[in-house]
Specification:
The complex is a heterodimer. By secondary structure, chain A is mostly beta strands. In chain A, strands 2, 4, 5, 9, 10 and 11 form a six-stranded mixed β-sheet that branches. In chain A, strands 1-3-8-7-6 form a five-stranded antiparallel β-sheet, with no helix packed on it. Chain A contains no helices and eleven strands. Helix content of chain A is 0%, strand content 61%. The termini of chain A are far apart. Chain B is an all-beta fold. Chain B is globular. The chains are: A mainly beta, B mainly beta. At the A-B interface, strand 4, strand 5, strand 9 and strand 10 of A face strand 4, strand 5, strand 9 and strand 10 of B.
């Protein structure tokens, strides 16, 4: 089956720093989502991005489907950005199945 | 905004009990999903439903069943809870329209089986 790898696995930042998280996938996909899992376990939707670039405030994402990767940029990080970031790809296997990546755990310190 | 709610944030049950986890979405989505999340194993799909009374097995359906009697509600049932079903359970929903299949998740239920 498809493999979805994220890097780095762990990241520690000072408040105000910028970061780039990467998601590589091993096969063609229909679509891709980025999520932030907060410390209470809730998965928050960040981006739904099959290709191209999208921006939402301090966050932006770029997916290059032909090269099978996506990037999530966090600028001017805040302590509330801490948590785990997941990418998940949509597989068209007769139904819309999400395959999750391994996650990047981010800690932003004041 | 899409809202997906789950009946409990935390639940403690005894081995052998029958457990019901309820999920409700308010956006008239056709598709609903149940996942479990475990350290080191990530999120895994248990069951999903693409319409009322319709269900399909996901990757790890053993020990679980589901019910979808109304479009907005999707229930996960543990017929006889076991300790290896201690986990975080996440419900999600999505539209089934052209290329729009973005999944939205509920807050999760942390289930402990003792």
């Amino acid at each position: 089956g498809i493999q979805v790898e994220q890097s780095p696995p762990d990241l520690i930042l000072q408040e105000g720093a910028n970061s780039t998280l990467r998601c590589n996938f091993s096969d063609s996909v229909n679509n891709l989502q980025w999520f932030h899992q907060n410390p209470w376990g809730q998965l928050i939707n960040l981006f739904y991005i099959p290709s191209g670039t999208k921006q939402n405030g301090r966050l932006s994402a770029t997916t290059v489907a032909t090269e099978r990767y996506s990037l999530l940029y966090i600028s001017s990080s805040q302590t509330t950005d801490s948590g785990v970031y997941f990418c998940a790809v949509h597989m068209n296997t007769g139904f819309q199945k999400l395959v999750f990546g391994t996650g990047t755990r981010l800690l932003v310190s004041p | 905004d899409v809202k997906v709610t789950q009946s409990s944030r935390y639940l403690v049950k005894r081995t052998g009990e029958k457990v019901f986890l309820e999920c409700v979405q308010d956006m008239d989505h056709e598709n609903m999903f149940w996942y479990r999340q475990d350290p080191g194993l990530g999120l895994r799909l248990i069951y999903f439903s693409y319409d009322v009374k319709m269900k399909e097995k996901g990757d790890i359906p053993e020990g679980y069943s589901v019910s979808r009697e109304k479009k907005e509600r999707f229930s996960l049932i543990l017929e006889s809870a076991s300790t290896n079903q201690t986990s975080m359970y996440l419900c999600a929903s999505s539209l089934d329209y052209r290329d729009s299949h973005e999944q939205y998740f509920g807050p999760g239920t942390r289930l402990t089986v003792t």
